[in-house]
Amino acid sequence: MNSPGDSLILESDSPERTMEIGRTIGASLQGGEVIYLIGPLGSGKTHLIQGIARGAGVEESTAVNSPTFVLVNEYTARFLGLDLYHIDAYRLASPTEFEQLGFDDLYRPDSVVLIEWADRILSVLRDIPAIRIELSHEGPTQRKIVFTHISPAIRAALTR
Ligand SMILES: Nc1ncnc2c1ncn2[C@@H]1O[C@H](COP(=O)(O)OP(=O)(O)O)[C@@H](O)[C@H]1O
Ligand SMILES: [Mg+2]
What we know:
Bound molecules: adenosine-5'-diphosphate, magnesium ion
Helix content: 25-40%
CATH superfamily: P-loop containing nucleotide triphosphate hydrolases
CATH architecture: 3-Layer(aba) Sandwich
């Protein structure tokens, strides 16, 4: 029997494949999810988020990139009727800055919160159940992607 804590491991051999994995996740979102993306620079966190956004129905004309001038990027996912919030904790000066973001307003049943570099602010992320995605380099274009605490729907979609 699988328990929600069991991890799922996928291999990606290209940026396109990582985005495709993201699309699959995005299309399986239900709202209310918080997703931590953990892994070193260049491991593919942003590519995965780009895929998630497209899979959820964020239009191609909307750029999906790490927030630079604001702390949170907001995208509307039309297919699913959800707001997606994209936070890059790398750009936060301190965990306190995350607390000032107004996370409580972002975390709703009709939204999904994506947090790159979540491991940098674990001390302020509260006991909210979150999907954990850890990426690591295995070669120039090889990435290992480890998922934990994914919903049965996302697991089923990823292993189909
Ligand atoms: N399998 C792969 N998946 C994702 N990115 C890859 C892969 N192989 C090579 N890359 C490259 O690695 C970099 C990943 O960048 P990005 O998604 O911005 O990572 P991060 O947000 O983790 O810093 C890009 O330059 C991309 O072209
Ligand atoms: Mg990034």
